C-alpha cells in the first residue's frame, strides 16, 4: 500500500501507457495509416500544367492552344470530352482536348496518374483552373512569332 501512496498521477498514467504498449507488442497489434482520400490526392491537371513547357510553331497552333485553355476554364468536363481541335496542319476537328494537350505541352517531370479519365476528373477543380489560368496568361504574353 505504501507503493500506491507514493505514485503521482503522472507516474500512474505512464504506467498505464507502458502496460498498454507492452500488451500491444505481445499481441502483435498493428496500427496502419489509412490511404489518402481523393480530396488529398494530387490534381493531375494542376501538376501537369505547373510543370509543362508549350511547344508550337505557328500562330494557328498558338490560337488553338489558347482556345483549348479557354475552353477548359469555361466548359464542363462533359462538354470538353466532345470538343475537337485542329491538328498541327490545321485540319479541323482532328484532335480531342487531351490529344492537343499531349502534343503541344511537354511535362518537365512525369505525372503519375495522367490518363484521360483522371484529366476530366480534375480539370474543373480550383487548383487545375489556377494552373490553366497561369498557362493562358503566359501564352497570351508571348509574341506572335513565339
**What structural category do the secondary elements indicate?**
mainly alpha
- Can you tell me the residue ranges where pLDDT is under 50 for at least 5 consecutive residues? 3-39
Discrete helix count: 8
**Global mean pLDDT:** 80
Record field, number of beta strands: 4
Tell me the helix content: 55-70%
How are strands sequenced across the largest beta sheet? 1-4
- Percent of residues in beta strands: 5-15%
Shape call: globular
Keywords:
146 residues, mainly alpha, two-stranded antiparallel sheet, 4 strands, 58% helix, globular
Description:
Helix 3 (44-50) packs parallel to helix 8 and helix 4 (59-74) packs antiparallel against helix 8. This protein has a two-stranded antiparallel sheet with strand order 1-4. It has a domain at 43-141. It has 146 residues and is mainly alpha-helical. The protein has helices at 2-6, 9-27, 44-50, 59-74, 77-82, 97-104, 116-122, 126-141; strands at 52-54, 84-85, 95-96, 105-107. It is built from 8 helices and 4 strands, in the order αααβααββαβαα.
Amino acid at each position: 500500500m505504501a507503493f500506491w501512496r507514493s505514485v503521482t498521477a503522472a507516474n500512474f498514467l505512464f504506467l498505464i501507457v507502458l502496460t498498454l504498449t507492452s500488451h500491444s507488442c505481445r499481441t502483435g497489434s498493428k496500427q496502419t495509416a489509412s490511404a489518402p482520400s481523393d480530396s488529398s490526392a494530387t490534381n493531375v491537371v494542376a501538376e501537369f500544367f505547373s510543370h509543362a513547357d508549350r511547344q508550337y510553331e505557328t500562330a494557328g497552333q498558338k490560337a488553338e492552344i489558347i482556345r483549348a485553355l479557354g475552353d477548359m476554364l469555361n466548359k464542363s468536363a462533359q462538354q470538353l470530352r466532345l470538343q475537337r481541335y485542329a491538328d498541327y496542319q490545321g485540319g479541323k476537328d482532328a484532335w480531342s482536348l487531351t490529344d492537343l494537350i499531349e502534343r503541344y505541352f511537354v511535362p518537365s517531370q512525369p505525372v503519375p496518374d495522367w490518363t484521360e479519365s483522371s484529366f476530366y476528373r480534375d480539370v474543373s477543380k480550383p487548383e487545375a483552373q489556377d494552373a490553366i489560368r497561369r498557362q493562358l496568361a503566359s501564352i497570351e504574353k508571348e509574341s506572335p512569332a513565339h
